[in-house]
Design a protein that fits this description.
The protein is an alpha/beta fold and 211 residues long. It contains eight helices and eight strands, in the order βαβαααβαβαβββαβα. A hairpin with a 5-residue loop joins strand 5 and strand 6. The relative contact order is 0.20. The protein binds adenosine monophosphate. Adenosine monophosphate binds next to helix 2 and helix 3.
Length: 211
């Protein structure tokens, strides 16, 4: 049976980091943000269309994102998927539920809670490897060598949409949609305290997945 793991929580709460840590346990991470950024970077037709939307911190069209994630799931051999950055609103959640019902997938839903000031600090400290996309945080999860990826020795970069004005907009967008999502999944949600260290949270999640 296929399993879908979803992380809900504000931008910068550690969803991406937790997803990357779970990859060591045969969970396949599908990050809609990464897939969309890849299109922008390669200036594909889609990339040109969505570039401005992403730079402003707005959401890309639901059907476009759903097609991307669905195709990625269908074309991969895994049966354990982390949907990193998806769903972002109720409509996306419904599209996903319909698809999950058809392929008889089971959901695991985690909500990582974090307050606004922490969100802003986390995002401003985030750095990403421009080669392998590993996520760091200069305050909480720094690389061993300053600005260099531990994995592949490439340079770490600051995401355009991690600028403070854009973070504030992304947080607004999150809050607008989050209540609906939390309500929609309320029977299955497992809450996690986002202020704990990345490794504490990771250990906790592994334990919960085993139960
Ligand atoms: P992320 O890397 O998850 O923070 O996403 C970065 C940006 O990609 C977001 O601010 C949106 O512009 C876009 N994006 C990522 N995932 C989605 C999604 N599920 N629906 C719509 N837009 C998305």
């Amino acid at each position: 049976m296929k399993k879908f793991l979803i992380f809900l929580g504000p931008p910068g709460c550690g969803k991406g980091t937790q997803a990357q840590l779970l990859e060591n346990y045969n969970w396949l991470r599908i990050s809609t943000g990464d897939l969309l950024r890849e299109n922008v970077y390669n200036q594909t037709e889609l990339g040109k269309k969505i570039q401005q939307i992403m730079e402003k911190g707005e959401l890309v069209n639901d059907e476009i994102v759903f097609e991307i994630i669905k195709n990625k799931i269908i074309s991969s051999a895994s049966d354990k998927y982390i949907l990193d950055g998806y769903p972002r609103n109720l409509n996306q959640a419904k599209l996903l539920s319909e698809f999950a019902k058809n392929i008889k997938a089971k959901f695991f839903i985690f909500l990582i809670e974090l307050n606004d000031s922490e969100v802003i600090k986390r995002n401003s400290g985030r750095r990403i490897c421009k080669n392998c996309q590993k996520i760091y945080n200069i305050y909480f999860f720094p690389p061993i060598k300053n600005n260099i990826c531990d994995n592949c020795n490439s340079e770490l970069v600051f995401r355009e949409d991690d600028k403070e004005e854009v973070i504030k907009r992304r947080l607004e967008v999150y809050k607008k949609e989050a209540n609906d999502l939390i309500n929609y999944y309320k029977e299955n949600i497992i809450k996690i305290n986002g202020k704990e260290s990345a490794f504490e949270i990771h250990k906790n999640i592994l334990k919960l997945l085993e139960e």
